[in-house]
Specification:
Oligomer: single chain
Number of strands: 0
Largest sheet: none
Radius of gyration: 23 Å
CATH superfamily of the largest domain: Ankyrin repeat-containing domain
Order of helices and strands: HHHHHHHHHH
């Protein structure tokens, strides 16, 4: 098999061939081509997250390995899903700077091509993104009540939904969004268990 098969297989998401080459000892996940490009870079660039899991988690590849420009796989991520997996699942160092002194966020923003990736990475640097993928997305919580004419939180209540969204936006832009989201869920549970006593408590936060 030729030297390039590993990189071609990684670009094509040919996991079987990649596993065969690495399992046979022909290559390792950290092998570089003449430009320092690794199968980890190739898998990230082409959006193959399952292949990244094999290369990094199973085969022991170095998620922070760099090419000849001192760039990790994060610099070649073209989708936000790949960037999130590299940061949140595989714990890549998103503060790392390449040989030009740029972080991945700065380089991708400058290229102005993959805006979702750039926005996600910039949010990390600004401290506004969740730390891990286990953080639940902002819930669109809806309630229905049978015996309270004064409560207007029923499904389809536009005013309540607007206030709820504003609260979620405040939480996500706060210094501690995880704590805010936990409190939001606790309030939802409290409303379900005892809506009348919890109403004023929740409305004050909206």
């Amino acid at each position: 098999m030729s030297h390039q098969n590993l990189w071609t297989a990684s670009s094509d998401n040919n996991i079987a061939l990649v596993k065969s080459l690495i399992g046979a000892g022909v290559h390792t996940p950290n092998d570089r081509d003449p430009n320092g490009y690794t199968p980890i870079h190739a898998a990230a660039s082409y959006g193959h997250i399952d292949l990244l899991r094999y290369l990094i988690t199973e085969a022991g590849g170095d998620v922070n390995i760099k090419d000849d420009d001192d760039e990790t796989a994060l610099f070649v991520a073209e989708t936000a899903d790949v960037a999130k997996a590299l940061v949140e699942e595989f714990k890549i160092d998103y503060h790392h700077k390449n040989s030009d002194g740029q972080t991945a966020a700065e380089k991708i923003e400058e290229e102005d091509e993959f805006t979702e990736v750039s926005s996600y990475l910039k949010s990390l640097e600004n401290g506004t993104a969740p730390a891990t993928t286990s953080a639940a997305p902002a819930p669109q919580v809806r309630y229905s009540y049978e015996n309270s004419e004064d409560m207007h939180m029923a499904d389809g209540d536009d005013e309540y939904q607007k206030l709820q969204r504003e609260r979620i936006e405040r939480i996500l832009s706060s210094d501690n969004p995880e704590a805010g989201m936990r409190e939001l869920v606790e309030d939802a549970v409290r409303l379900q268990l005892n809506p009348e006593s919890a109403e004023r408590h929740v409305r004050r936060k909206l």
